[in-house]
Amino acid sequence: MEMDTLKSGFCSIIGRPNVGKSTLMNNIIGQKIAITSNKPQTTRNKIQTVYTDEEVGQIVFADTPGITKAKNKLGEYMVGAANQAMKDTDVILYLVEADTFIGPADEGIISSLKRESAPVILVINKIDSISKDKLPEVIMAFKDKLDFAEVVPVCARSGENVDTLIEQIFKYLPYGPFYFDVDTVTDQPMKQIAAEIIREKALHALDKEVPHGIAVVIDLMKERPGKNFMYDIEATIICERESHKRIIIGKGGEMLKKIGTNARYEIEKMTEAKVNLKLWVKVKENWRESDYLVKNFGYDKKDYQ
């Protein structure tokens, strides 16, 4: 296939928290890269993944943090990362839920989208949650707010209509060579993905306010020499209060063991290797309010400035 017939470009996925951005990206890529949960602030960084069709072209996706009002320094980082993603892109996917009404958060996103020059595709997710006859009503409610380039209803979890979405994205990408090798699925370092998997398993296991105040730092990740492919990983879960630390560890260490077991299983699937995972828990009071600590735990504003 001649390079001048191939398309290649960037596509940002934006929307409110918990509308299924990471689930959609994982489905398109065909493997888990971005972590998912039903809790806000699950995605904190801009995560890039790569979809390649050698006959058509390459899409570099950016999954972004859910756009909401920033309440602390971490929140400021997340909003900044999402807003920057709307500028550095060829196509914007604006993901909404099928059964939603247009509230203040979506009004704010739509207002931001009006200032962007990239074509915006409205992606209505979770179409399995409403009856088919209600879909036109949802579409019209959003189209009254913004002139979208395309409207594509999907179910990110099942993959329904995702092929159509990919076709529509390619329609708006420029012609040009690939940005990444055809085998690349993400530009994220393995250490970062491992840290995010541990955080995901903590999000699933914990409740209330604890998940919002945790970060995960990989202290060590190295391949063990020998015939059997194996990684030794040491990681620290950072929380904001001593009471949170007790909850994360759990009675007799049971909660930390559960988080570790579930994370190890997922990391072994990702690396296709055995994993020896050791977890610790440390308290850094109100770290989300500290520019220094937010940056130290991997959320550097320079990433999007």
Report on the architecture of this protein.
Helices cover 33% and strands 22% of the residues. With 305 residues, it is α/β, with parallel strands linked by helices. A 6-stranded mixed beta sheet has the order 2-3-1-4-5-6, sandwiched between helices. A 3-stranded mixed beta sheet has the order 7-8-9. β2 and β3 (57-63) form a beta hairpin. α6 packs antiparallel against α8 (254-271).
Secondary-structure topology with pairs:
Elements: E1 7-14, H1 21-29, E2 47-53, E3 57-63, H2 73-87, E4 91-97, H3 104-113, E5 120-125, H4 135-143, E6 150-153, H5 162-171, H6 190-205, E7 215-223, E8 230-239, H7 242-249, H8 254-271, E9 274-283, H9 291-296
Parallel strand pairs: 1-3, 1-4, 4-5, 5-6, 8-9
Antiparallel strand pairs: 2-3, 7-8
Give the radius of gyration.
20 Å
Could you give the count of β-strands? 9
Q: What's the main sheet like? A: 6 strands, mixed
The helix content is 25-40%
Top keywords for this entry?
33% helix; 305 residues; alpha/beta; 9 helices; 6-stranded mixed sheet; 3-stranded mixed sheet
Care to give the gist of this entry?
With 305 residues, the protein is of the alpha/beta class. It is 33% helix and 22% strand. It has helices at 21-29, 73-87, 104-113, 135-143, 162-171, 190-205, 242-249, 254-271, 291-296, and strands spanning 7-14, 47-53, 57-63, 91-97, 120-125, 150-153, 215-223, 230-239, 274-283.
